[in-house]
Amino acid sequence: MEMSEDDTNTEDYPTEIHDYLAAFEKSLGSVDEMLKTMMSVSRSELLQKLEPLEQAKLDLVSVYTLNSMFWVYLATQGINPKEHPVKQELERIRTYMNKVKEIADKKKASKLDKGAASRFLLNLNICHIPLCCL
After folding, report:
1. What is the pLDDT of residues 59-99, one digit of tens each?
2. Mapped to the 3 state alphabet, what secondary structure does 93-120 carry?
3. d(CA 20, CA 27)
4. Which DSSP string corresponds to 6-70?
5. Where are the domains of the chain?
6. CA 77 – CA 2 distance, rounded (Å)
7. Residue 71 contacts residue 81 (beta carbons within 8 Å)
8. Residues 30-64: tens digit of each pLDDT
């Protein structure tokens, strides 16, 4: 689905946007390839390999991508997506994405190695550095 010089009629659109259209077409090809790869594995098989938090991330990214593509579709049809319910849907999904990120960040922070922390504090005492001075 690549644009060739023969396929383009410069009378159909201004020549200065040709590079933008070619880049857009290349991006569409990339999206198509990613979708084919994603669709080659069954959803249940994919989800079995993921932890619940990763499953939530996958679901949110998938629904955000679909709604973003719908946003672009609306724009190509001359409909202002900012005045369409898809805008609120994208905002709602972003809210959930932020909540999942917060959970993931808390999960990372809670993995403090208590043994290493204890050894660190003991070494400070051994080095005669009073804990009250830290």
Report:
1. 999 899 999 999 999 999 999 999 999 999 999 999 999 99
2. HHHHHHHHHHHHHHHHHCCCCHHHHHHH
3. 10
4. TT--TTTS-GGGHHHHHHHHHHHHHHHHHHHHHHTS-HHHHHHTS-HHHHHHHHHHHHHHHHHHH
5. 1-40, 51-133
6. 22
7. yes
8. 888 888 887 888 888 888 888 999 999 989 998 99
Q: Decide: 86 and 67 in contact? Cβ < 8 Å.
A: yes
Residue of 37, 60, 35 whose CA lies nearest to 50 = 60
Q: Which of 69, 64, 72, 62 is nearest to 89 (CA)?
A: 64
95's tokens: 């809210």
What whole-number distance in Å separates Cα of residue 84 and Cα of residue 87? 6
What type of residue sits at position 82? Answer: K
Q: What is the rounded CA–CA span in Å between residue 92 and residue 28?
A: 25
